[in-house]
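Provenance and format

Records in this collection were gathered into a single text stream. Each protein contributes a sequence line and a token line. The two records reproduced below are adjacent in the stream.
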Amino acid sequence: MNMPCLLAAWSACEGELQRYLRHRLARVEDADELLQEVFIKAWRQGEQFCAIDNRRAWLFRVAHNALADHLRTSRESIALPDDLAAPESEAAAAVDELSQCLPRVLAGLSPADRLAITLCDIGGAPQRQLADQLGISLAGAKSRIQRARRRLREALTKGCRVRFDDDGRVCGFTPRPPL
């Protein structure tokens, strides 16, 4: 396969690519190996490489991605002992306390809202399944789930004194004893 466009782009960029990779890697051998990978990926593009508008940018993007993959897989990791216990964090305890409030709040919702929340949000079923089960359109099921979520949020705010941040995530609550 004769590809003068690849050879021209490569001869124009090879030195820059090599400096880019060598600057970011401790071992010259690793940089040279990644440089070869970049060339091979460009070669495998075949005639499609010639259709690329900015071949230099494409080569650098491939080099950047190859570098990121290399760094990700070459990280040293230390194995933790099997008997290491996870520390009990305050956040985990708070989530456990909040989870005790959820059944009480769910029980106070209407059966339709409870079904939408438990089936789709807690159970992970697709919204299409709710639509089929209720015999309504997918758009109707989506609306029903949104309304149920809004009512659940209101019930959590009132019943458990849950507070939400600007993004809608739980940022605090006042624990109450379970039923």
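Adjacent record:
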Amino acid sequence: MDLMQKEKILEEYCLNDMLKLKQICYPKICKIGGISYMDYDDLYSIALDVLRDSVEKYDDLQNCKFSTFLSNNITNKFDTYISYMNRKKRKCPVKMEYLDELIEEDVSLGEKIPSNFTIENELSDKIICSIDDFSDKMKKYLSRLSKLQVKIAMLLSEGYNQQEIMEELHISNTVYTDNMHTMRAYDKIRILY
């Protein structure tokens, strides 16, 4: 391919805010699944780099259309990127600042292991003194929580607000938020329905 042909291909795929390139990428991104909108930009940027490399490496003497060659290269690069990101997540699933917070406070690590659920609505109507007063569904729900999360749930049921709970349990806003997020997780709250 000569320089004019390369420029023509680059222009074709980059016109109208990379419409043609995005048409190739979008189905591949959807197939990956679980991609945030921030990752879309990263993947489109990767695809643009792949386009540039593919234009340089394409040999029009092969029995392959450029669009097929480009599509395969994008698929390979996306697979490599997703594999890298998954490996990165497995390598360091917990933020170091969070670990520092766990070490600094006088609460055991077992009490701080997060889980996802919103219990405020379930408990707001009840003023409960002991776990024995809960329904069977609520007992089952509470059994899936860490000790710290049960303490948070009990204080919520007694009408404490976030600030009061943080002061009572001597926990930071981050620890409280992480635990509430875990207490609100679907796999936990579905028990209550």
